[in-house]
Amino acid sequence: MKRGVIVDELTLVRSKTFKLSIPHLQAKSGEVLCITGPNGSGKTSLIECIVGMTTPDTGSVTINGRVVDNNLQATRATIGYIPDDEAWIIAELCATEYLALLRSIYAKADVRTDMEATVRDIAKTLHFNAWNQQLGTLSHGNKKKVQIIAGLMHRPRLIVVDELRNGLDPLAIIAAEGLLRSAAARGSIIVATTHDLWWAERIASRVVLLIDGQLRLEQDTKSIVKAYGSVENLFLSQVSGSTG
Amino acid sequence: MFIRSVFAVIFGQGRFWRASLRLASMMTIACILGLYFAQSAAGLPLRMQPIQLLCSSIFTVQLMTILGGVSILGATTSQSSLVRILRTLPLPSWQLWFVNLLPHLVLSSIFVPLIALPLWNLFVAAHVWPGLSLISVFLGMTSGVGLLLGLPLAPRQITWLWMGLVLWAEYKAVQLYQSATCIPWLVIGLALAISLMGLLRIFKPVPPARAQYREVRLLTTRVSYFIKKVIRSRPTRISLATTLVLSMATAFLCHRQSITDAGTLSFLITLLVSLGATDIRALCRRISPAEIVGLQGTRKFVHSEFMAACALSITGTAPLILYGTVCLGIEIIPAIALGLAIGFPVGTLVIPEQRNISAQCTATLLCLAVTVSVSKLTFIGDFNQVERFGFYLLLLASLLLLTAMTEYKRNPFTWSNYEQTKKH
User: Tens digits of per-residue pLDDT, A93-112?
Assistant: First the structure.
């Protein structure tokens, strides 16, 4: 069985003017893959296809040998999704109830890890303690912390992160980065989208650049830094080249 | 755990006891109303054949389900965040299907006593086996929900055409019953088919929410602010369109059945106007302090909201009001005033927000209960008495004032707050 995430010949038409087209993209176990690109370049669409929220028009996404479309339920138990969307919580529940609900769902899907202990550990790392407040009334940063706990509580083999740093304070950012690094060290695959190129350079082992839905570049971070000086320089040269 | 949490989120803003309490109170109101209607139905002298009664009942229940379905549609939209999250979790597809179906199931079961009790007595009065009434309730409700959900593969816009077409076909079939014996079975078949089609629609995957890039005019003109807001928001747009379609259908039915009775017309107009006003206010409740400041303070804000709710609830009921005016002249004005006088306080009392399905449902039941109660009050008597004009208008003015004062207390953001923040 092939380990990792493989995106093959994927196309997704979103509107008359936008088409996402990824001929081939692979992320291996223990790797941190950062997807970056200008606004509207297709980062979120690609993430939605990987997580299984959107079915691509053609092509496939395979996670650890399972095609996402066919084995959706089995695959979902292995995915942890940390969105960049404040509404991605059940606003009426408090953190304790929300995480208990997720725990019961994962437990039924045969997730065998000690999720209660993991939740406690992650919350301690992120300095989260607003357990009994309704999620809808939490601050932006605390909502993000709940999303991080929810995304990592079942120790997923694939972690998909959309703009991790948004809303978090500097301490929480460092803590969250640490959580992702240790997950990668355990063998999880991290797929992250970001506009923060400095962060991408710091955390990613590989960087993917999307422009207008097309895969413009996929390269090792070290070789990017060697060739361009920084990921930011690469971005500027590619994007200004394509727009200007 | 899963079902309990989903139930609490959909019906009780996350609290199981609140959800249970709300459903119990709704069930109580529905039972009381059902018993009242059943008592009225028991004395009706009916001479109908079983199959004819069955078809007519299916058609009536279907119409009533569509009327109540506006709240259900609002709820389906409101729980989209819950559904979106659940869709990324490792849940079997039947559980996702169940979450989609839960609001429909629960609300339908609440409305069952309201409809089934009078129908049972009606069937007994017509010397027809009363068990058939339960079959008609089941078929009418499921096909009503099926009609509201639309065709499985067709876009949403087609739903309205489809709904109109089916209701018209069924009405014609019920009318033509005596000339062709196969028609009742066609009605029953059609009810079954649209129930199934509606249920199939639930299986269709919900596409992820996408921002719609549309250029819109600025919202800050005070008078038209809420009118634009209501029309731009999909749930209220749907509910307004449904009220309009229902009003058209009711007017058409009244015309065909030659119903010109002032009491009945006034009752229908009052009910539809009050439901419309409550529904429109559902959106108006979704406010932010910025909006109040933008509209230059609470007083002007409440004024704008009330004007919009009045204008749109009357627009939604316009076809029936028009028919009423043709039949009765200005005698229908008290009915409109009474409708608004009921709709506004109920909207303020229950706060039927879009996210809150049980509040919407309670508001619908309350409007119905108050309209029925008012129609029975001896000192008010008929809705339509011209000499009661002054009374109704006074009632409307006082209730509007009371509602406005409550809203004013609830939203204490004034224009002076804004002026002060500008100074700092």
Answer: 889 988 988 888 888 888 88
Q: Which residue has the tokens 């389900």?
A: B65
pLDDT, residue B201, reads 60
Nearest to A105 among B82, B90, B210 (CB): B90
Question: What is the distance between the alpha carbons of residues B109 and B132, in angstroms, rounded to a whole number?
Answer: 17
Mutation for testing the B interface, residue in A12, A68, A70, A92 having most B CBs under 10 Å? A92
Among all residues of chain A, which has the CA nearest to that of B91?
A73
pTM: 0.69
Measured over the CA atoms of residue B295, residue B300, residue B306 and residue B312, the dihedral's sign is negative
Distance from the Cα of B125 to chain A's closest Cα (Å) equals 47
CA distances from residue B4 to A101, A147, B15, B338, B398 in whole angstroms, order as listed? 10, 22, 10, 40, 42
- From residue B285, alpha-carbon distances to A236, B95, B309, B359 in Å are 46, 32, 11, 12
Whether the CA torsion A118, A122, A128, A134 is positive or negative: it is negative
In eight-state DSSP terms, residue B260 is: -
One-letter identity of residue B121: N
Q: For residue A13, what is the DSSP state?
A: E
Tokens encoding B345: 């306080």
- Using the structure block, give the residue that is written with the tokens 């953001």: B413
pLDDT confidence bin for B216, thresholds 50/70/90: very low
Q: Read off the amino acid at residue A200.
A: A
Interface predicted TM-score of the whole assembly (ipTM), two decimals: 0.75
